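> call design_seq(struct)
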């Protein structure tokens, strides 16, 4: 089975403006999606990123340059999931069930090289 990285982008959603009930609904939706991925034996790990912007390290000639943070980034990465699937189409089907899509976010699906440890 192949491994895929699902990159969740929240497009600058203002999660902090959600009511407590709305946030419970979001949490419940993600819990259900997690349950589905686990039942299908697709779940390979997940993580949420902080709202703090990161740094970018680039090589410029013989030196390494650290840029950022860049507050003008249009698409913040909210988190990621690692999933197992036989094909890209299967991985995309799993991504289509991601709750972030309900709130205007998107999910980028990328095939990974190498192995992924099971949780």
């Amino acid at each position: 089975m192949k491994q895929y990285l699902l990159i969740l982008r929240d497009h600058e959603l203002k999660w902090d403006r959600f009511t407590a009930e709305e946030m419970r609904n979001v949490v419940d939706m993600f819990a259900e999606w997690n349950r589905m991925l686990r039942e299908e034996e697709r779940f390979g790990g997940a993580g949420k990123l902080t709202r703090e912007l990161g740094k970018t390290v680039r090589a410029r000639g013989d030196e390494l340059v650290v840029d950022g943070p860049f507050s003008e980034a249009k698409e913040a990465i909210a988190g990621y999931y690692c999933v197992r699937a036989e094909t890209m189409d299967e991985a995309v089907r799993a991504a289509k069930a991601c709750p972030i899509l309900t709130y205007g976010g998107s999910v980028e699906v990328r095939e990974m090289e190498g192995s992924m440890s099971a949780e």
